[in-house]
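Following the same procedure, backbone shapes were mapped to integers, yielding the entry below.
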Amino acid sequence: MNAKNCCKTMEMELAGWKAMVYDIVRNMEKLPGGEKEKILPNIQDIHILVEEMDNRIDEIRERCSPETGIDDIRTDREKFNVDLSKLRVKVEDAAQFLGAGNFGG
């Protein structure tokens, strides 16, 4: 895989996760007042997470060009894989809290 394809794949994957996170936030914000109060810190954490994903998407777009080599983005790709693993755990935790019936609209 060349660097440009790898960058595009990372960008698309982050955009997909970002959409899932937005769904979770929307569902959390629909909770009744008392339930919502209990998870308010989680909602704030998720908003921070979305901002971090936006920043990572911007970084990927800025750093990748047709001239970029796969070795040039190796460190970025490794960091992306670590960040994605953490993201999956946070999303799974949030989805579990909401319950299968309330997730996904």
Confidence is low (pLDDT under 50) at residues 100-105.
